[in-house]
């Protein structure tokens, strides 16, 4: 029984969104489950997917908090 944990930062992927949408989460669950079926022959009903959203202040990148790293690199915050 596979258990897959997906961690993402809590921020929207579209204007006005502040987190991953329910539809995006459903797509992740479906895609990961299908991948395990295709590659490892694990049945869909035996696969568990957990999505964890983490505040950007609790996510580090390159030795810095994510927002600071992105600002230094000129990336979207």
Automatic annotation (TrEMBL):
Keywords: Isomerase. Residues 2-64 form the 4-oxalocrotonate tautomerase-like domain. GO terms for molecular function: isomerase activity. The keyword Protein biosynthesis does not apply. It comes from the Bacteria. Belongs to the 4-oxalocrotonate tautomerase family. This is 4-oxalocrotonate tautomerase family protein. It comes from Trinickia terrae.
């Amino acid at each position: 029984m596979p258990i897959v944990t997906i961690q993402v930062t809590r921020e929207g992927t579209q204007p006005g969104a502040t987190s991953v949408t329910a539809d995006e989460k459903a797509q992740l669950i479906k895609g990961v489950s299908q991948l395990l079926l295709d590659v490892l022959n694990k049945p869909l009903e035996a696969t568990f997917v957990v999505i964890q959203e983490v505040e950007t202040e609790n996510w580090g990148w390159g030795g810095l908090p994510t927002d600071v790293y992105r600002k230094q690199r000129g990336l979207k915050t």
